[in-house]
Design brief:
By secondary structure, the protein is of the alpha+beta class. The chain has helices at 9-14, 35-44, 46-69, 90-94, 149-154, 175-184, 186-204, and strands at 103-105, 110-112, 120-126, 129-133, 136-141, 146-147, 161-164, 168-174.
């Protein structure tokens, strides 16, 4: 890791034990943030939260590529059904920041395809979706679950495909709406970081 690199963020975001060691390979200078300063920076500096999301998404891409190359993207690499938000709070959270109407998908219908450009992220309001890499399901999301945010943060192609596992309803959020949520709602940024951290911790723990 060179100048500008960030490490140790997973433990700060999740409060869990560290999963890796860091050693100075040359004389170096680092800036450290204790928990309170870290949380304060997230609330006061939306750009800091977006930068952390970008770092974590890059690491997610690396972990997925490594697991795929090793043939490890099987059932052991699948998260249980998860959600980033309490579904009851979603309408209030995005009120005024998403002009998009709720969209509905029938069971087994494709929603996103890996490799597509990302124009929106989605919050599941009803039903359940399956997140797939290749032919394998790696995550299931129920009401309050969020997907598609990675492509909005770093403006790169979609990481995964998503299929409606049941009939479902989704609330789309554009990139401008997403940035607005990060700027106006520190709680939203923290929830998004926690969701990314959970995915990253889960996948990196399964790297061979």
């Amino acid at each position: 890791m060179k100048a500008g690199g960030i490490f140790g963020e997973l433990a700060a975001i999740t409060g869990a034990a560290r999963t890796a060691a860091a050693t100075a390979k040359t004389d170096c200078k680092v800036i450290s943030l204790e928990d309170k300063a870290f949380q304060s920076s997230l609330r006061r500096k939306p750009a800091f939260a977006l930068m952390l999301m970008s770092v974590m998404i890059a690491r997610l891409r690396e972990a997925i590529a490594a697991l795929g190359a090793a043939g490890e993207l099987g059932e052991k690499a699948m998260l249980k059904e998860s959600s980033a938000f309490d579904p009851k709070h979603v309408p209030a959270l995005v009120s005024g920041l998403s002009d998009e109407p709720v969209v509905y998908y029938d069971r087994n219908k494709p929603i996103l395809q890996a490799g597509q450009a990302g124009l929106r992220m989605y919050i599941v309001t009803e039903g359940r979706v399956a997140v797939q890499i290749g032919e394998r399901t790696v995550e299931r999301l129920g009401p309050g679950g969020v997907f598609g945010e990675a492509a909005l943060v770093d403006k790169t192609p979609r990481l995964a495909s998503v299929v409606a596992e049941t009939d479902c309803a989704l609330l789309p959020v554009t990139r401008n709406g997403f940035i607005g949520l990060v700027k106006m709602s520190p709680g939203f940024a923290e929830k998004m970081l926690a969701s990314l951290a959970e995915r990253l911790r889960f996948l990196t723990a399964r790297l061979p």
